């Protein structure tokens, strides 16, 4: 009897050791879990990274935390019902890149519903922790081309140009303190400055270090990005595979709808000349949305601004900036784009409603796009502290202080814009913007 007991004990210990060896293999452990919207409101994309292959990429999700928890503990043998989506991982082939990116699409989700999820692979048990997200408001009978016109209030955090350096740690801490209030984050390019410091290891390493720090944010709300010059210097494909935006590998522009607002992401790192692919796409996207919803909010974002007034070359004299103003600016005016968000210069700036360098209307009756620059969360290059004088007539507020911005869409007619300084956590600038109808 003792021998039988001893044999059983040995078996249990052996199984325990095997499980722990597998569980302790960090090379297949999912890292940098991120959420992203697609153009369809009933979908969500979940992406992550592993150093080594672990079969197909899997996401298991449920509306109930206890269901998912018991399912993961029992290795899905209990008859507990969770939903699973899968995809093939993508390998990096460059000699300065390593690992696999995983991008899995969840579809047929319900509106305004919280889902709990874990990610992993098919070969060995190596789940992430349990995360959760909440879907947006939408009518299950509509399609992606017929999004909600009614606004459901929401709150987003906005910044560009964030990477390891002066100000960065405090901005990340500040952001994490406030995360309960946000429904999404917009990082408008230059994500971690992956071309600095560790290029010999590949810029995936720099992105991974950055995204590990941000995982409590990126796994909770969609982390929507647009490429900056420090993101695509090496490989646009690497950027696209890492961040899982609803765009193709060589066309990084995209749009989506959220709670009654149309968002459009423009790549300032791709050609914006008239009649280029991107220009034609922007025109078609704005035209289609305006035909569908003539009075709805449109918020655009890109890495490079075309209204900014620091002494940096980009703001003072670059011909590319003037080209964007001429091409994108006229489309924004024609299709009534309400707000444009950007970074690139490391300062904060808010304009009056403006078109062709002239103020058009005011914040109560905007006749042109209001431009915001938020290049202030901190990075290796520091802040741009010198501004052009005299202050341009279109510049309403500008300063160089570490922090980030938040945007609250209240309803169909009002948006509250605020800049939050890191020091003392004070609101250093704010403005109500009323929905404008451009002539
Ligand atoms: Fe930049």
Automatic annotation (TrEMBL):
Residues 155-348 form the Calcineurin-like phosphoesterase domain. It catalyses: a phosphate monoester + H2O = an alcohol + phosphate. CDD domains: MPP_PAPs (cd00839). Keywords: Glycoprotein, Hydrolase, Signal. InterPro entries: Calcineurin-like_PHP, Metallo-depent_PP-like, MPP_PAP, PAPs_C, PAPs_N, Purple_acid_Pase-like_N. It is an enzyme of class 3 (hydrolase). The keyword Glycoprotein applies. This is Purple acid phosphatase.
């Amino acid at each position: 009897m003792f021998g039988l007991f001893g044999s059983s004990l040995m078996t249990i210990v052996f199984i325990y050791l095997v499980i722990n060896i597998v569980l302790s293999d960090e090379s297949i452990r999912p890292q940098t879990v991120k959420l992203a919207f697609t153009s369809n409101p009933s979908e969500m994309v979940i992406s992550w990274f592993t150093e080594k292959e672990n079969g197909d990429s899997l996401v298991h999700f449920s509306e109930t935390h206890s269901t998912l928890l018991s399912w993961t503990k029992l290795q899905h043998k209990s008859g507990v019902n969770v939903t699973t989506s899968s995809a093939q991982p993508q390998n990096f082939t460059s000699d300065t890149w390593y690992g696999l990116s995983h991008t899995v699409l969840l579809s047929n989700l319900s509106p305004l519903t919280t889902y709990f999820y874990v990610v992993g692979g098919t070969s060995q048990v190596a789940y992430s922790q349990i995360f959760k997200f909440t879907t947006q408001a939408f009518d299950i009978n509509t399609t992606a081309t017929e999004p909600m016109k009614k606004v459901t209030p929401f709150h987003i955090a906005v910044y560009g140009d964030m990477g390891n350096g002066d100000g960065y740690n405090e901005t990340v801490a500040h952001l994490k303190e406030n995360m309960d209030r946000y429904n999404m984050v917009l990082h408008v390019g230059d994500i971690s400055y992956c071309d600095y410091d560790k290029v010999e290891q590949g810029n995936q390493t720099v992105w991974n270090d950055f995204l590990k720090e941000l995982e409590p944010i990126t796994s909770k709300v969609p982390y929507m990005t647009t490429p900056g010059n420090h993101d695509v210097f090496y490989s646009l494909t690497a950027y696209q595979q890492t961040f899982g935006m609803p765009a193709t590998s060589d066309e990084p522009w995209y749009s989506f709808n959220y709670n009654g607002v149309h968002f459009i992401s423009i790549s300032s790192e791709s050609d914006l000349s008239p009649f280029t692919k991107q220009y034609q796409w922007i025109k078609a996207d704005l035209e289609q949305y305006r035909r569908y919803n003539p009075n709805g909010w449109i918020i655009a974002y890109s890495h490079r601004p075309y209204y900014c007034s620091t002494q940096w070359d980009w703001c003072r004299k670059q011909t590319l900036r003037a080209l964007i103003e001429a091409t994108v600016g006229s489309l924004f005016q024609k299709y009534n784009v309400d707000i444009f968000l950007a970074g690139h210069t490391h300062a904060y700036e808010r304009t009056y409603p403006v078109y062709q360098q002239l103020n058009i209307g005011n914040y109560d009756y905007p006749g042109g796009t209001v431009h915001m620059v938020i290049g202030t969360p901190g990075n290796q290059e520091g802040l741009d502290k010198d501004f052009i004088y005299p202050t341009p007539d279109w510049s309403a507020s500008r300063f160089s202080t570490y922090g980030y911005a938040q945007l609250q869409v209240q309803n169909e007619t009002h948006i509250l814009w605020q800049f939050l300084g890191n020091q003392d956590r004070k609101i250093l600038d704010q403005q109500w913007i009323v929905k404008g109808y451009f002539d």
